[in-house]
Amino acid sequence: MPRSTGRVLTLLELLQSGGTRTVAELADRLGVDGRTVRRYVDQLIDLDVPVESVRGRYGGYRLAPGHRLPPLMLSDDEALAVLLGLVAGRRAGLRAAGHTASETASAKIRRVLPKRVAHRLDTLLEALTFTDQPGEFDTPDAGVLLTMADAVRHRRPVSIRYTDRDGRRSERTLHAYGIVAHAGRWYVTGEDARVGEDRTFRLDRIADARTLPGSFEAPVGPGPAQRVLSGFATAEYRHEVIVRIHGTVEQIRARLPAGVASLEEYGSAAGEDRAVERWRRVELRVERLDWLPPVLASLDRPFVVERPGELRDLVGAFADRLACYARGTGDRDGRCPGGHAPVTGRRTVDDP
Question: How confident is the model over 81-123, as pLDDT tens digits?
Fold first, then answer.
């Protein structure tokens, strides 16, 4: 590629990064004088690239807003970053705008990669593994996602048609505070205007979203992500669990994060040092209790089960089973009483 052509492409890349660039800045970046910069700008204009001249003390050149520029120029590292982001997002379940959008975007970028860069990417992907393979999650409709984002930004009410986890359909007016990606799914949180209470909805269960006239004030307090996590921790489940645990906030949160349990000081003033070991009250709402005994044991901290009594029995049985395993006093297959019972994880909240 001739040096002048390379500099013209570099000039285009500089202008694509946004803002107004002065002639002096462009000349310095390209290693040429101001007259040559103007000649390169003329060449871009001849190629129908909409370069605008900005007059004044801080004038220079910029690209016209809203223009889609071919070709998309990425450095080797930028191309690798984009493709790895698409791969990581797809494997983490964070896919928006349909199941195939990330695959087709990846294919388009790969088609224009130099062989050397494509080989680097293939080498990396062959060496890369993920410890957790996500399940198949439904992804939100692109139109719904963009409408929600616009409503959040401009604080506009939005009308939605929603289907809950039990298949019930309803129409609601939502004052959306924010959009949150969590555990491979997309959620929108806000006030359900019909009942005047905060609600969290899965975006893939919204069939239609339409912005309404008017506006609303954003609430003070926790942000959208914290509201979603709090909603998970306080959702209606079969069992309400209250446990007192002696430890620091960090020690407890390592096994019982905010999306699982709410936590508060027990018998001490709020706001005291989170790094101090003290008794803290932990509240959970769960569908099943059998996953909790090993979690509590893994904390390796003193704890007291306040309720329900059924959990105390399960913890006792779990301790007996561990002692049986340690002594080797199980049956011929090494199993101890209750050892065949599966210990399963908590069920993810659909829409608190």
Answer: 777 777 776 665 555 555 566 677 777 777 767 777 777 777 7
Kindly state the tokens that stand for 176: 């959306």
Cis amide prior to 342 (ω within 30 degrees): no
E-strand spans in the chain? 51-54, 60-63, 158-163, 169-182, 185-192, 197-202, 206-211, 239-247, 261-265, 278-286, 303-307
The model's pTM is 0.48
Cβ contacts of 198 within 8 Å, gap of 6 or more: 189, 190, 191, 192, 227, 231
- Residue 153, both tokens: 């930004």
At 41-68, the pLDDT tens digits run: 998 888 878 888 888 776 788 888 755 5
For 132-168, give the DSSP string: S---------HHHHHHHHHHHHHT--EEEEEE-TTS-
